[in-house]
Design a protein that fits this description.
alpha/beta, Rossmann fold, seven-stranded mixed beta sheet, 10 helices, 7 strands, 44% helix
């Protein structure tokens, strides 16, 4: 009975973001992944979109002193359509991408067939055994979880599935301004969807979207990492979002 209740809570925690991301995947998948205001409503150029992933990964690999070649197995957590997964291929022998949206995974398999993409609609990474990855990267993903507790659950999973002496890099805002915290447009989107309006009408005619944003104080993240048996080796302001930091973690 207890396990059934836990499974039910787990399903509820991921059901809402799953619906939101399936909507975005059908409405405007590239903007859903990289939400530049000027690129909304299908304005991303495909070449420019994937070039942004190449530039981001090149900068990341330089900061981690990793050159092109087989650096083991890497996970792109929250891979979307494969913008970063594709860019990781020259640096790793095996590249995995996981996402909550079936439609995003379907598109990713088209855009980056050389990557192993997996659908993950649970609040854990039980798809992978302990100490599986040499490197884990997650950018602009944890901030879209429905709760801080779920974001921390994934951080603990990162610590579990990374190898000893491996590296985990993830981004998270440490606070939100008042408008970000209120998210009136997302809330109105959700209300109209519950009333039966189509996602296409709400997004393209009313210009509302379901994208949520949360934050976690750095002290909470540091405590989560430490309790998971990992070690924080670097924190820096990254500019990916207002009041956003990137965390670099390893496991002794």
């Amino acid at each position: 009975m207890l396990s059934e209740k836990r499974a039910s809570r787990s399903a509820l925690r991921v059901a809402l973001p799953q619906r939101e991301w399936e909507d975005l995947a059908c409405l405007d998948p590239l903007w859903g992944i990289l939400s530049a205001p000027s690129k909304q409503f299908g304005k991303w150029d495909m070449v420019e979109f994937f070039a942004s992933g190449n530039a981001e990964i090149e900068k990341l690999m330089m900061s981690c002193a990793l050159s092109r070649g087989d650096n083991g197995k890497v996970l792109d957590f929250g891979c979307g359509v494969g913008r970063l997964s594709k860019a990781l291929v020259p640096y790793f022998g095996q590249v995995y991408g996981v996402d909550i949206s079936a439609e995003m995974v379907k598109l990713a398999r088209i855009y980056a067939p050389e990557v192993t993409f997996l659908l993950n609609q649970s609040d854990n990474l039980e798809l992978f055994h302990d100490n599986f990855f040499d490197f884990i990267y997650s950018n602009i993903v944890l901030q879209h979880q429905p709760t801080g507790e779920l974001a921390k659950a994934y951080m603990r999973e990162f610590a579990r599935v990374v190898k000893p002496n491996g590296t985990v890099v993830f981004q998270m805002p440490y606070k939100l301004d008042l408008r970000q915290a209120a998210q009136p447009r997302r809330r109105l989107y959700g209300t109209l969807r519950k009333l039966g309006l189509s996602a296409n009408f709400i997004y393209n005619r009313l210009h509302l979207d379901p994208m949520r944003t949360i934050s976690l104080p750095s002290k909470e993240i540091e405590a989560t990492i430490l309790a998971a048996g990992a070690r924080l080796v670097g924190v820096y302001e990254d500019g990916f979002n207002h009041h956003s930091r990137t965390y670099v973690v390893t496991k002794p």
